[in-house]
Design brief:
CATH architecture: Orthogonal Bundle
Number of domains: 1
Distance between the termini: 57 Å
Strand order of the largest sheet: 1-2
C-alpha cells in the first residue's frame, strides 16, 4: 500500500508549546519518542494500547513512519579510524 509522502504529518505534531516542541501524536501529549521506546522494549501492541488507550494503530504507524523519515534524511559522515595509541 503506497501512502502519500509525509502522510504522518496528519497524525504527528511539532509545536514548541507542547512538550517543548518534541514531536507528539496530534491531540495528545504522547511523544513519538515514548511510543518508539515502548515498542523497542516490548513490541506487543496490546500492551502499548493498554498503557496509552488514546493511541490508535494509525498513530503507531505514523510514529514509525516519522522515525523512518528522520533516519532516511539523516546525513552520515563516516569517521576515519585514527592510529591513536599506535607507535
Amino acid at each position: 500500500m503506497m501512502l502519500e509522502p509525509l502522510w504522518y504529518r496528519q497524525r504527528i505534531s511539532v509545536d514548541p508549546t507542547i512538550m517543548v516542541g518534541k514531536p507528539v501524536v496530534k491531540g495528545t501529549r504522547i511523544p513519538v519518542e515514548l511510543v518508539l521506546k515502548h515498542l523497542a522494549q516490548n513490541p506487543d501492541l496490546d500492551d502499548l494500547f493498554a498503557a496509552y488507550p488514546q493511541l490508535t494503530l494509525d498513530d503507531v504507524k505514523a510514529c514509525l513512519e516519522y522515525a523512518r523519515a528522520v533516519v532516511e534524511g539523516e546525513q552520515v559522515f563516516p569517521v576515519a579510524e585514527t592510529s591513536a595509541g599506535k607507535s
